[in-house]
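Reminder to self: keep the SMILES exactly as supplied, no canonicalising. Ligand is zinc ion.
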Amino acid sequence: MLDRLLILWHFAATRWFPAPGLRTRARRLHRFLARVRRESPFYQRIDGEPPILTKCEFLEHFTELNRHGFTLAEATEVALRAERERDFRPELPGGVTVGLSSGTSGTRHVFLVGRSERCRWAGQMLGHTLAPASLRQILNPFAPPLRLAFFLRASSNLYTTLASRRVAFDYYDLTRPFGDLMRALAAAPPDVLIAPATVLAEIARARPAISPRQILSVAEVLDSRDRALVENVFNVPVAEVYQATEGFLGCTCPAGRMHLNEETLHIEPLWIDDEHERFHPVITDFSRSTQWFVRHRLNDVLRYDPTPCPCGRRTKTLLAIEGRAEEVLWLPDDRGEPAAVFPDTVRQAIYSLASPPDRYRVEQHAMRWEVRMSGGDEGEVRKSFAGLADRLGLVRPEVVFLPWTEQPASEKQKRIRCLAKPE
Ligand SMILES: [Zn+2]
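Structure tokens returned for the bound complex:
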């Protein structure tokens, strides 16, 4: 009950209160930093401005950077067990949810979310993305509950927080065969369809008999080809949610522009070019207190849009998120038709190993998957890929290991890519 009220509060605040101005935000940031200094042993040692942290540095100091002093090993244990058993309910003491993300920077990332943060996330997410018609459906007790379909590699208490009597939440596990998922989807047509960009495109190609009112693309960059395909098939515009372990970073507004979520984040741009157009964001999230995210450097490349948005929301907008390009691999099904293996599941097959490689690249040349890695165990990787293909009901690829080489910096850094689809 308390959770519901909290969600409702954050929903209303997000939806109907104007975003705080610069001065209010600066005051909140100042208060947040003062609190972090009092509570975190890591920041007590630091005089002056807090340093910019990379993901690796954050994980190194994991224990000192969460309120409960959980170790990385404890948190990883709970997260990996959930992945293996596909039961995502277990929590650490104090109602803390553990999430595992393979991230885009190449390192496995474990993150902690408290109960009230979960409610805030749900309220903000709905507040920013829910169409007026969807909101009316939730509020009308005579209408069926609003049905959300979530396609993800792993569920989480974070997402199921959204479920209630007026909101039905269906989780579709991407490690299951895609055909089964499409049958289940047609049997329970959603009002709101939520999936990673590449998965949305595959759903559109499968043309299930559904007519969602809203479609949200999450976790990956939505390229223009996929967007056109999805919008064509379902005849609704696709909204994008930009999210990372660092939090809920942004989403598109009714005018179709990507806003950074500066209501709860302080975002410093690390400019990459002299024209001040492209930057890596450095994130401080002053809404979170289970883990302290202070000046986190993300590897994503964002393109800044300096013009004000016609929707009236006063936060920074982006022309594009450029750095998260993903590639889909393909394997034949039992009729010899190529079926998609989404990059997120490939990354997960690697990151959930007992001894994952430090770095790796997977390149597909028809049925041959060339793997280059530094560290890690070849036998384990081979077994994990075979298991992934089996779970998806697809033909196993021929996995070949090649010596690790650095990718030239001038090239686009891609860890997973398909150079030739199997025929
Ligand atoms: Zn806008």
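Points to follow up:
The chain has 13 helices and 21 strands.
The radius of gyration is 21 Å.
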